[in-house]
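User: Predict the complex.
Assistant: Input components as received:
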Amino acid sequence: MRNNNLTKRSVGKIINVLLNNTVPIVILLILVFAIPLSNLSGTFIIREIVTRLSRNLFLILSLIIPVLAGMGMNFSIVLGAMSAQIAIIFITDWGIIGIQGVLLAILISTPIAILLGFFAGIILNKAKGKEMVTGFMLSFFVNGIYQIFVLFIMGSLIPISNSEILLDKGYGIRNTINLIGIRQVLDNLIAFDIKGVRIPILLFLIIGLLCIFIIWFKKTKLGHEINTVGQDNDISAYMGINVGKIRILSIVISTILACYGQIIFLQNIGTLTVYDSHIQVGVFTIAAILVGGASVTSANIGNAIIGAILFHAMFVVSPLAGKTLIGNAQIGEYFRVFISYGVIAFSLAVYAWRERIEEKRDEITKGNEI
Amino acid sequence: MKLEIKKIIENFSLPRIIVFLFLLFLLILTPFSGLRFDSTINDIIVRFGMNGVLVLSLIPMVKSGCGLNFGLQLSIIPGLLGAIISIEMGLRNFIGFFAAIGIAIFFAVISGYLYGLLLNKVKGNEMVVATYVGFSIVSFMCIMWLLLPFKSTDMIWPYGGTGLRPTISNKGYWFNILTDFLKINIGEYLVIPTGNILFFALLALLLWGFFRTKLGTSIAITGINADYARSCGINIDNMRIISVIVSTIIGAIGIIVYQESFGFIQLYLGPLYMSFPAIAAILIGGATVDKASISNVIIGVLLFQGISAAAPSVVNNLLKHDIAEPLRIVITNGMIVYALTRVVRSR
């Protein structure tokens, strides 16, 4: 009898582990099938993944702190990306290039990111329990304001002199801006090649520093407070923590980090599509961290790294795998869009389902107590 | 006095007043910007007929407590299937139109039932889950549009290329079949699409009637107070599923009416963001996350589509700016953010 119970329990445990990691396991299985189908060489895949890791990991890591604060996936990191882009438009206009350009972009974008993050924090505080959908809609809303700013205010109220980035009508910014001045300056500053794979050491050092910062930050008093707020709002308030302020702060930090992440991303890509580059930032980073096994209530550096590798490996191979399989690369393109959205939908649904089961359990135990 | 004004504003909601005043301002400016007033009005009415049913479809889910239907795509997809299968079968005019609706309803019942089951599992987080389930299904169907074996030459690429075209014209099938039904020519620039308005009125009436039946009342009670509903012996989960199915069916009909008036069927990523304008419209009409009525729909669609119709031409002609599109983005999404920050719903 007892033995039976034990096996039952261990089977339950295994099922639980599998359930907790459904998303990474499914993606891994897809990769196992898709990599041979894509006919890509190992070196090529590794090179692509290394580039994409250095390009995207900073952005993905910016999601962690709001999760600790119990605010779920921060869909409003798009606001940080917009701050970065505004700063990059300015430095391109002024013709400041190289590492100085990147540093100046960081300097200009930080106050914008703080301002937007603060705004997002206040809004999200008014929508407790609906942070994710509100953050998502908020990013669309601010995108409209960003468009008005870039399309009408830049070049008219704010002087922009570089005719290469200005629209022909004399104000407003062109759709694409060539970032030749800062293209891959961070990538190439310190880097070396191993068997044809270029490793941007400096970028990985920066990402490493961010990881150390996150680990250190969790241990500070502020970090503990954020964690407490994430566990239970009422208890934190009882302990004298200003819950609203802590939540705003974690969104501000996340927005600033996302802003720097977007600068890293854009200097690597080398072109800025003014009206598009930021739109998908939220979806792709969130999908990536979820693929790494994170959930709405828990996310760590490991999730970010594993997620970045798996998600971007899938991004690299799926169009070609689709081509081999059905003779149409478009299928692979749609497939990776589907996986991005599907992963988010699945993770959110599992989280909501669990929350509901726990709620029900609480109700039952409460009923028993009475 | 001050308090009273505050209360009126509170009741009427500030954004709605702003939107209303903005529309009024635009309409006053119309003649000065070199546009015909009657053609602007015509535009608004046509757009009302085009979008009304889609927005109407949000009501049942709000009433049952499922919140705003951010997963409107789950009814748009059945609608698209209905439309293209009807064209594939070569059905024309009213037969084609109603065949499209019939087929769409069949798929909508399945889609709505599964969607309802899912929403019951994620109570309290319906909106964010629905958003991404909607996005997933649209991107999944992108693959299907490439693979499904449709043959009609009006829908596939003429040579080379695989799959269905991204925009399919329904001209020659059932384009403007409702719009032209009993249409009233008031002037050269003002034509009332009587058929569209009658169709909207018919569906609105049916919905109104539905919420007067025992079943409809039970659904409404579920939305107002789940505990009370439970104590009355109402099966909450079933009520919610039924409301989702009804919403999905109306939405599927809504997108067909939209295509009928618009002239094109948009596949692939076309429907991706279609839920937001519909939600924004009902919110501008005064609905909230947990309250919505047919009058909200009518007022909301008129105001929202009024701005969408009048703003581009008026603003562009006056300022020589095409600021209207970003402005529309700000209004649509600002309205939704505002509504989400308003109501703290107790679960």
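The first helix of chain B runs from residue 2 to 12.
Let me know if you want any component modeled separately.
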